[in-house]
Amino acid sequence: MEVILKEDIAGLGYKNDLVKVKPGYGRNYLIPQGFALIANESNKKVLTENVRQASHKAEKVKKDAENAAEAIANAVATNGPLEILAKAGESGKIFGSVTTLQMSEVLKTRGFNVDRKKISFLSDVKMLGDYEALLDLHKEVKYKVGFKVIAA
User: Fold this and answer.
1) Burial code of 120-141, b = ≥16 C-beta within 10 A, e = fewer?
2) CB count, 10 Å around CB of 17?
3) What are phi and psi of 130, to 5 degrees?
4) DSSP letter assigned to residue 79
5) How does pLDDT run across 79-98, given as a tens digit for each residue?
6) CA-CA distances (angstroms) from residue 15 to 89, 146, 151?
7) How far apart, in whole angstroms, are the C-alpha atoms of residue 64 and residue 120?
8) 2, 11, 54, 88: which one has the fewest Cβ atoms less than 10 Å from its Cβ?
9) How far apart are CA 56 and CA 140, in angstroms?
């Protein structure tokens, strides 16, 4: 079954993408929740027209995402790596784990507003040390940022 996504869905696609899904997933979840439309001929025509009209706006959004990635890189280069405070035991093991919400808050303190849903860690953050996070700023702009977990 082909559907047209009305918004970004992690692991499936981005807004206005034409994707194939299993019929039950499309009929019972995506369409009733308002996340997708059935990809029939009329909806495909509407999609192509909307994409054509929004293409210049999409370029600006992509350029803004590239500028944000560059600004984050410059901020990390000048001010040092991002630091997240966490309570830890003597062996360096963190009580709990570092979350994307904490990463989002650290980025906000540096002046960057990145939604926590657009942040993913490349490995589990359960010990003190250096790690990397992937910021999904745009469907074509992804940026890896290093951060350090230090004891509070």
Assistant:
1) ebeeebbebeebebebbbbbeb
2) 15
3) -100, 140
4) H
5) 888 899 999 988 889 988 88
6) 43, 28, 40
7) 20
8) 11
9) 15
Architecture category of domain 64-151 in CATH:
Roll (3.10)
Architecture of 2-57 per CATH?
Answer: 3-Layer(aba) Sandwich (3.40)
Over the stretch 14-23, which tens digit does the pLDDT of each residue have? 888 999 999 9
| C-alpha to C-alpha distance for 55 and 74, rounded to whole angstroms | 29
In angstroms, the CA 17 to CA 91 distance is 47
Token couple for 10: 């992690």
Name the residue ranges covered by the structural domains of the chain: 2-57, 64-151
